[in-house]
Amino acid sequence: MRAYFIRRLMLVPVTLLGITLVVFMVLRLAPGGPVERDLMEAALGGVAADDSGASGTEGGGQVPAEVVLEIQERYGEDTSPIVGWLTWLGVVKRERAETKARADFDPGEEVTEVTLPGGRGRVMVERDGRRATLLDISEEEGERVNWRIEQTGATRFTVTRITPGGDLPPEEWNVRVESPGELSRRLRRAVRDHPQAERGTLPWRAVAFQSQRAGVLQGDLGRSFRYGDPVTTMMRERIPISSFYGLTTLVLVYSICLPLGIVKALRHRTFLDSSSSILVFMGYAVPGYALGALLLMVFSYNLGWFPLDGFTSENFHELGPLAKVLDILHHAALPLACYLVSSFAFMTLLVKNNLMDNLAADYVRTAAAKGVPYRSAVFKHAFRNSIIPLATTFGNNVTLFVGGNFIIERVFDINGFGLLGFNAVLERDVPITMGVLFVSALLLLLGNIISDMLVALVDPRITFS
Fold it and tell me: Looking at the domain assignment, is residue 61 inside a domain?
């Protein structure tokens, strides 16, 4: 059995690679992405137009090539989807946008000068076909700071900051040359039939930049396209909220539904069973978001018993420890009711039906015929086999700690993990979407392994050989 679980754990990274690759390709290739949105805003905003007289982004009339290429680089779509995925993983180095310096080659010229940002110096670049060669390196001198640039390769050089107190660690830079054909292909990929791409007016370009590996393998999920904040920070702020609701829901569901299902199975077709079934099915028939809107209108808006939105009050940080706990419970009462209403019916009936099937099995009747007490026949024989289906699904509940229900979070205006992922999909915020997907998929895969472990623990007959 140990070998089986080791194989399952070894398959987790491979499965994650496949999931993230498929989703990343869909996000990059599907229309309506952030590049198209920004191009439309640039066109409507009247960004300097060319002389074609056309309008809109489809013909490229109001969006110059420089703006299109800059927007592509801003969202990392200046490379192929496969390279973008490898960059997101951290396998391929990411070009740091804040360090990029560009210079166009004049028509007929083979040499251009690139001024590095921050006064680090100037680099003379020669192109031989599409290969960049550093020709001359000069220093920028200030009152107290000097920059020394040393060439370490054909397209690589280091920059060292010289201060009165000593040298700081050198910075490694790279240079590449972009041909007009390459820029034209990028331009047409973003805007079909762009006039500047067809007329061949794009120049040769030299780009100096710093690069680093910053991806999943390095623990960096990137920055949000919309907010500009690190994805890991945004997720870290919302995971405790969703974990609170997920853990509370899990504890309440299992602590109430297990005893209720047992009682309903032992008291089948009694008044207790019938009345509780009516209440359970009524709750199951009401969607959680619809119940949330009703509860908000009645208990929050009309009666004022509970807050209208949020996870805590505005003065939460000023409260004492006990007051903070009461404040969280005050805000969480209505959302928890919506989380629990649909889970109760499924879990209660699952326990009841499984226990009734096992109570009618031959091995239970045989145990009773041998004189085994009824309580022992129920809890030592029938109940243990009845919880096997619960064990197969228990591991999937791990995703409740970060998934949540984005519809309920939206109704109650709770900034949870589920709502973060939902808004990221609507806004095509690729870094957040990929970050939420990575965490959710990882927990789901680990949850399936936990389910198999629980099944093997509950049922000794299963060996997973």
Answer: yes
